[in-house]
Amino acid sequence: MKAHDGMYIDGEWRPAAGRDTIEVVNPVDEQVIGHVPAGTAEDVDTAVRAARAAFPGWAATAPAERAARLAALRDVLAARKDEIAETVTAELGAPLAFSQAVHAGVPVLVAGSYAELAATYAFEEKVGNSTVYQEPVGVVGAITPWNYPLHQIVAKVAPALAAGCTVVLKPAEDTPLTAQLFAEAVAEAGVPAGVFNLVTGLGPVAGQALAEHPDVDLVSFTGSTAVGRRIGATAGAAVKRVALELGGKSANVILPSADLAKAVNVGVANVMSNSGQTCSAWTRMLVPADRYDEAVGLAAAAAAKYGDRIGPVVNAKQRDRVRGYIEKGVAEGARLVAGGPESPRDQGYFVSPTVFADVTEQMTIAQEEIFGPVLTILRYEDEEDALRIANGTVYGLAGAVWAGEESEAVAFARRLDTGQVDINGGRFNPLAPFGGYKQSGVGRELGTHGLSEYLQTKSLQF
């Protein structure tokens, strides 16, 4: 697609306030594929004012009409699926088949789920002698990451629109072309002017201006825990609501009764998916001590198959960051059984699929989010030891448990300090709430729980 040289504000593409632009680079060949405006605080203010002006009308729109606009948006995204996939592949470097199935496919499901929820959700209920109303929060500032560029947009914008909120989106600077495609889809779906607005730009400039704007009622952010803390502090000072989906260091716990080969192979696939750039990836594999060597061998063999099947990481900074973690793992005494810090290609931001054995829970690579195709394998002595290790980080976003009997896995999963757990390879559910415990965030996305983030409660007594 051809990049727009303006911002989508109040239903039209408008020139940016400044002249600075951001290069969009293809991480496979390091070639510039486009430029977008580097938004300023002035651009953000214009967009927020448009969202504020549009809010009363959209909030008063019948839920059935909001549902109809979301259904139309779903249909537009589905019709443009190939173009979306090609754009994500160009910006992010993901293999085209993965972009088609996940990056373009999942947002269609999520948009459709909120079309249905907008039509069926109980925005009003009787409680004794009271009528309780669920009303839209107001203007939402949505700040999204690059790793799932369209999914993260839809997971914020769709429930906000379903609730009756208006939105200003600041997408990641690495993947703005996908966000521009989404803005085109919103217009094509007939969403009224000002209800959705897009400002491209850098996080410390446009993102900060959006988070701090006094007319933004809720900030929904997905990204690093460090940035989430700053946004939370800013919002707290203004008594402003936040929804924060932050980092993860999820445990994949393989109990002694599990099918070891299946659990290891699925676990490796989970970590390598999207080049490891998934906040919920199961990057810590916990294995019984008496089957540790067998698991390491299986993981090394599985990782070797991904050498030419995964794309690059998003940019040079991220590539160097991931390589730095691999080097630190070696320096701290972990054993490389697959991959390593050396680049597998002469061009592009590629990182070798990497597996570490002999990892202890105190090591940096077992505690910090790497955000690349790097798996750490830890041994445990018994179930209590496994639980302690699994819960032994500041994060609590996701995880997995494998056991011979589902009930055994469920019993263990209920003791994990984490927001979402897959049992024996459970499938993705776009209606299940997603979000974290501890420093993995505040609030939930997807399904009715995601919708409720954008609602506030009023009761009338009779």
Task: Explain the overall architecture.
Keywords: Oxidoreductase. Belongs to the aldehyde dehydrogenase family. It comes from Streptomyces triticiradicis. This protein starts with 5 loop residues before the first strand and ends with a strand. The radius of gyration is 22 Å and the shape is globular. The protein has 16 helices and 22 strands. It folds into 2 domains: 6-246 and 440-461, Aldehyde Dehydrogenase, Chain A, domain 1, CATH 3.40.605.10; 251-423, Aldehyde Dehydrogenase, Chain A, domain 2 (3-Layer(aba) Sandwich). With 462 residues, it is of the alpha/beta class. α3 (81-92) runs antiparallel to α7 and α5 packs parallel to α6.
Keywords:
single chain, 462 residues, alpha/beta, Aldehyde Dehydrogenase, Chain A, domain 1, Aldehyde Dehydrogenase, Chain A, domain 2, six-stranded mixed sheet, 22 strands
Total domain modules: 2
Strand order of the largest sheet: 14-15-16-13-12-18-19
CATH architectural category of the largest domain: 3-Layer(aba) Sandwich
- Report the sheet-strand fraction: 15-25%
Assign the CATH topology of the largest domain: Aldehyde Dehydrogenase, Chain A, domain 1
Quick one: how many beta strands? 22
Our Rg estimate from Cα atoms comes to 22 Å
> What's the overall geometry?
globular
CATH top level of the largest domain? Alpha Beta
Assembly level: single chain
Query: What is the assigned CATH homologous superfamily of the largest domain?
Result: Aldehyde Dehydrogenase, Chain A, domain 1
First and last CA, distance: 56 Å
